[in-house]
Amino acid sequence: MAGVKPLMLEVINVNKTFDGFQAVSDVRLRVEKGQVVAVIGPNGAGKTTLFDLITGQLAPDSGRILFQGEDITGRKPHLIFRKGISRSYQIVNIFHRLTVFENVQIAVLSFQKKSFHWYGAARKMAGAETRAILKSVGLADKADQISGFLSHGDQKVLEIAIALGNEPQLLILDEPTAGMSPEETGHSLTLLKRLCADHGSTILFCEHDMGMVFSFAHEIMVMQQGKTIVQSTPAEVRSDPRVQAAYLGGADECSG
Amino acid sequence: MIVDRRFRLAALLCGWILIFLAAPFFLSRYYLYLIGLILTTGLLATSLNMVLGFGGMYQFHHSVFYGVGAYSFALVSMKSGLPPVAGYVAAPVMAALASLIIGLITIRLSKLYFGMLQLSLGSLVWAIVYRWYSFTGGDDGLHGINIPEAIASTRGVYYFTLVVTIVCLWLMFRMVNSPFGRIFQGIRDNPERTEAIGVNVKSHQLVGQVIAGTFAGIAGALFVTLEGSVFPDLLFWTLSLELIIMCLLGGWYVFFGPMLGAAIIVVLRTFVGIYTEYWTSVLGIVLMLLIYFLPQGILGYFQRRQLSEEP
After folding, report:
1. Alpha-carbon torsion angle B109, B111, B112, B117, nearest 10
2. What's the CA gap between B21 and B29, in Å, rounded?
3. Which of A115, A117, A144 to mutate to test the interface with B (most CBs of B within 10 A)?
4. Domains in chain B, please, with CATH?
5. pTM for the complete prediction?
6. What is this model's ipTM?
7. Are residues A89 and B195, on separate chains, in Cβ contact within 8 Å?
8. Which chain B positions have a beta carbon within 8 Å of A89's beta carbon?
9. Contact A96 B199 (CB under 8 A)
10. B44-79: pLDDT as tens digits
């Protein structure tokens, strides 16, 4: 709890190497409580790797990751989730044979520590919480559909709904609107803004859609070739000469 | 619509149970034995499907736990001097122990590697049983195993098998539909994501494997009750393969699929076996047709049709 505002997440000089390739190099990142922070950078800049390191899918070679002041470096993913960090994925990563309802219900059951209950019918449990989440993301009318048959846009929204199952204190979204139509992107942005307004959610996300990044994020962290170039407000990032040289010049190539 | 489906399923099951209860009054001794064999094999296949169809685990050598259960029952009732009931306790306990030990070794690996290591460890158990003449009877097996008086008659064995099977299926059905079962299905569809929502995947898989092994052990004890003997073929890998085929044939995403698959395979083996000793070639043809035309299995096909008909 150092600094003026309480820090939700702090990434300190984290490194990760794959077979000699430095994917993440001395990365620094700060997310304050209630803040929306975007990570941008060209493809291969290490954004997803950074998220994997924070949520425990990968363990860093060196450096530290603090969540609410607690060191969570290298912890297992399920333990990090229980601490209150939740994430959605760039590529749709859902339980495709289960219904929309069951997809979210699994996350809620896990959060309620009911994963080892083998008596009692699951359909009678966690119903209210699950329905509330589905309603807040606008999937309530599709609750009984098999999730594998949903449209891509709906599956991406379901991604976020699953991530909301543990009432996360920090929500990490890996390209939440990738592959969506402009309409669906607009819908998702509205949804995320409402989440922030209603719950004061802290969100860390990465995105190629610059319109979304600059209209939604309070702060932007720019990565290039695994390194942090700068973390600052959108206005400062836009005018930063290093960022312009490294990244924004090529932003037109990166479609949403 | 869902309530209606549940009601239909309950009505269908009650109908089947009534038919099974009435069967001894109009079927000959041989057919009662055959039904008993179908129930036992179906229980075994259903226990496999707990981890295969609902857990997505490559349980390649499930029959080991069946064999361990059968041999435990046989050895306890022949050599221990304890009352025969002790055998019915020993079978699931020893099978659970075996699946815990094999599970602890194999669970660290995933998918195919898990299956291959299980296959080799299981074959090791088979080799011990096959060679240890003084204790297990080697390739002759053990014969003339005493069955408790109360259920020793043809009808007694039949009703005992029926009741145990129904109770076990009911327990497994509850587990599949419990929070544990729901999360198990999540692991099947997407282990990485399940881990990312706070589930310790490996420990769930281990627990699932022990549950499946325990029910396989119960099926093993039922088989001995029915047959009065044990032999090493019970834990040979070919039986494990047949069990997997039963699950695929009946539909491995449907709870009662393996029971149907077991019924078809047991009946085929019994009646095709009268005409040719190459009955496995018939099995091979069935398997090929299945993969091409019914990849979801028989019940899976009907379930899918039903789902697409309902609005």
Report:
1. 40
2. 14
3. A115
4. 2-309 (1.10.3470)
5. 0.86
6. 0.83
7. no
8. 193
9. no
10. 999 999 999 999 999 999 999 999 999 999 999 888
